[in-house]
């Protein structure tokens, strides 16, 4: 099964000191959406995103396709203990993305929209295939902080799951429940 619409073109690798931490998605010319547990506010100064490529070089500086993070906003209701409730964050970039055939923004649902039922959904990323595994070097299906999309609309953000993925149900943050919050911060 090949990638569809914008699912892989909106995908980014959120990195700290050039090391992949989590997946994320481009939602606007200066904005990225990810899980709150992926954001370390105290380390924004060493945060970058890698975009516009399916291949990453983990823990190595990459020329081009990288952009510095300006600021990160974690949902104030985020609870890191006992289930990662409200596990959502937006990240502002220092410069705008240059959209082209390899870089596009994903669409967001309206506030309170119901996720499609019995539709093909896609989740892509470079995450760990198993506990204590290593980051994939080529874009795969599954990643913490990554976007779950249906026809190019992002309905979920991967919060947590047991590894290997798909052995037990994963837990996702419902983007439609936070659409107004995203808009209030980003203007999108």
From TrEMBL:
<dbReference type="InterPro" id="IPR050430">
    <property type="entry name" value="Peptidase_S1"/>
</dbReference>
<dbReference type="InterPro" id="IPR009003">
    <property type="entry name" value="Peptidase_S1_PA"/>
</dbReference>
<dbReference type="InterPro" id="IPR001314">
    <property type="entry name" value="Peptidase_S1A"/>
</dbReference>
<dbReference type="GO" id="GO:0006508">
    <property type="term" value="P:proteolysis"/>
</dbReference>
<dbReference type="InterPro" id="IPR001254">
    <property type="entry name" value="Trypsin_dom"/>
</dbReference>
<keyword id="KW-0645">Protease</keyword>
<dbReference type="InterPro" id="IPR018114">
    <property type="entry name" value="TRYPSIN_HIS"/>
</dbReference>
<comment type="similarity">
    <text>Belongs to the peptidase S1 family.</text>
</comment>
<keyword id="KW-0720">Serine protease</keyword>
<protein>
    <recommendedName>
        <fullName>Peptidase S1 domain-containing protein</fullName>
    </recommendedName>
</protein>
<dbReference type="GO" id="GO:0004252">
    <property type="term" value="F:serine-type endopeptidase activity"/>
</dbReference>
<dbReference type="InterPro" id="IPR043504">
    <property type="entry name" value="Peptidase_S1_PA_chymotrypsin"/>
</dbReference>
<dbReference type="Pfam" id="PF00089">
    <property type="entry name" value="Trypsin"/>
</dbReference>
<keyword id="KW-1015">Disulfide bond</keyword>
<keyword id="KW-0378">Hydrolase</keyword>
<feature type="domain" description="Peptidase S1">
    <location>
        <begin position="1"/>
        <end position="187"/>
    </location>
</feature>
């Amino acid at each position: 099964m090949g990638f569809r619409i914008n699912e892989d073109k909106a995908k980014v690798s959120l990195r700290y000191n050039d090391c992949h931490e989590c997946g994320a998605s481009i939602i606007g010319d200066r904005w990225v959406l990810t899980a709150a547990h992926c954001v370390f506010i105290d380390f924004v100064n060493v945060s970058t995103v890698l975009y516009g490529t399916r291949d990453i070089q983990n823990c190595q500086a990459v020329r081009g396709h990288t952009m510095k993070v300006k600021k990160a906003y974690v949902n104030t209701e985020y609870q890191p203990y006992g289930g990662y409730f409200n596990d959502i964050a937006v990240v502002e970039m220092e410069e705008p993305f240059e959209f082209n055939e390899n870089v596009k923004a994903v669409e967001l649902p309206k506030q309170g929209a119901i996720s499609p039922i019995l539709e093909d959904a896609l989740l892509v990323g470079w995450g760990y295939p198993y506990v204590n595994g290593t980051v994939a070097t080529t874009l795969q299906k599954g990643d913490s902080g990554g976007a779950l999309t249906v026809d190019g609309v992002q309905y979920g953000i991967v919060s947590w799951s047991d590894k290997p993925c798909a052995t037990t149900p994963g837990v996702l943050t419902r983007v439609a429940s936070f659409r107004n919050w995203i808009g209030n911060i980003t203007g999108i």
